[in-house]
From TrEMBL:
Protein name per the record: Digestive organ expansion factor-like protein
Domain UTP25 NTP hydrolase-like intervals: 7-219
Chief localization: nucleus
GO biological process: maturation of SSU-rRNA from tricistronic rRNA transcript (SSU-rRNA, 5.8S rRNA, LSU-rRNA)
Leader peptide range in chain numbering: 1-17
Highest taxon of source: Eukaryota
Pfam families in UniProt: Utp25_C, UTP25_NTPase-like
Similarity comment text for this entry: Belongs to the UTP25 family.
Swiss-Prot/TrEMBL keywords: Nucleus, Signal
Subcellular location: Nucleus, Nucleolus
Length: 405
């Protein structure tokens, strides 16, 4: 706004920020980047902790030493610096690029959601601190939004709500140069917002609908999906059971009610064991965990907040049958891609956000069938897995059970 015309780029990991900033430097015309200040510090803090000269050599050695058991998308995302707490100001001058610039004078800010939320929290706690530099954001880019969904999307909503507010202090601004529509609180309608993701979901749609308000209009690009069922290499009957939910707000309770009344009675007295419950959200994980405890079910947990020692113990218990049921969350799979042995019966309580997780989990099954629960409000996730055309039929059909082999 009145401080500078700033671009804000929100990214999930330092390794992603490293690639983005490096590309920006590469694309800058030579006469404007004769001097890149703090380049070595940037490579230390955002790269692999080595200098630029050794980067390519170390990258080759690192890629050769990666465990081949991890999928290629996991290696691409987590093969570098996985720090998710950072902020970097960048200022472009006639002869140089200044990294680690002051946020109030920077032309571009590259930050993680957690890094920005920390600054916003400090500004709320201490009067001498503020985030007035967010008032001048004219271009917002949220890249790798699908990865940020696996972190904490509420941070993004909070950050966007802080943009383009009237500053608390003047910060040396020439008042005569401030545009009237800024003073009238119209800045959000002039900001360009770009959200980049491998897929859309209700959270991204919510940000798009409520916070992308440019007066020139907006565009959303959506894909049609063929589905990932062909990637299930085992001969497994995949049984999709649709439950009824009146509204999106009721869907979580309806799913839980269907599980407790229709699914759990079939497995509670199972002698065989090896029952995996794959659950997408942490809220659902807690809800199902508490229910199983109330039923004194033999279960173990593998979630994103489970201690490593408990994870190792749970995997052993599940494999040897000491515990009959395992709860496994999508975020735990996202960050670790565990190979779970001893899975005889797979129940997908809620479909994963990331479509590649479906065949990865189903292909670990040592039994012959899996059960998937869904409602009409799961259409976005469903179409990424079974295909757009099939998902529409499954949502609208009079039938409630569908089988894929």
């Amino acid at each position: 706004m009145c401080l500078a015309h700033v671009v804000l780029i929100i990214l999930p990991l330092a390794s992603v920020a490293f690639r983005v900033v490096k590309r920006l430097i590469d694309l800058t015309p030579p006469k404007y980047k004769s001097n890149v200040e703090e380049r070595e510090r940037f490579y230390r803090e955002f790269g692999a902790g080595v200098s630029e000269d050794r980067e390519d050599e170390d990258a080759v050695e690192s890629s050769e030493s990666k465990k081949i058991s991890k999928p290629s998308d996991f290696q691409a995302l987590f093969g570098g610096n996985n720090n998710d707490h950072f902020m970097l100001g960048i200022k472009f001058t006639r002869r140089s690029i200044k990294l680690y610039g002051d946020f109030y004078s920077s032309d571009m800010i590259v930050a993680s959601p957690l890094g920005l939320i920390t600054k916003i929290g400090e500004a709320e706690m201490f009067k001498e601190k503020n985030v007035d530099y967010l008032s001048s954001i004219e271009v917002l880019i949220v890249d790798h939004a699908d990865v940020i969904l696996m972190q904490n999307w509420s941070h993004v909503n909070t950050i966007v709500e802080q943009l383009n507010r009237i500053p608390c202090e003047q910060h040396g601004t020439d008042i005569m140069r401030i545009r009237q529509w800024y003073l009238d609180g119209q800045a959000p309608f002039y900001r360009q917002s770009i959200i980049l993701s491998s897929h859309i979901n209700p959270d991204i749609n919510g940000l798009f609908n409520h916070h992308c308000l440019n007066h020139e209009g907006k565009v959303k690009l959506a894909s049609e999906y063929k589905g990932v069922l062909p990637k299930v290499v085992l001969q497994i009957r995949q049984i999709y059971e649709r439950f009824d939910a009146k509204t999106a707000e009721d869907a979580d309770d309806a799913r839980f009610d269907y599980f407790t009344k229709k699914v759990f009675p079939k497995i509670k007295d199972s002698i065989q064991g090896g029952i995996m419950l794959f659950i997408s959200s942490y809220f659902e994980f807690i809800q199902v965990r508490n229910f199983l405890k109330s039923q004194e079910a033999s279960c173990c947990l593998l979630g994103e907040y489970t201690e490593q020692s408990d994870i190792s113990r749970a995997r052993v218990w599940f494999f040897n049958g000491t515990k009959k049921i395992m709860l496994y969350t999508e975020r735990a799979h996202f960050y670790h891609r565990y190979k779970i042995r001893g899975m005889q019966n797979l129940i997908i309580y809620s479909l994963p956000e990331r479509k590649e997780f479906y065949p990865e989990v189903v292909n670990m099954l040592q039994g012959s069938a899996c059960t998937v629960l869904f409602s009409r409000f799961d259409q976005l996730r469903l179409e990424r897995i079974v295909g757009t055309a099939a998902a529409k039929r499954m949502i609208t059909s009079d039938k409630g059970v569908f089988v894929f082999c």
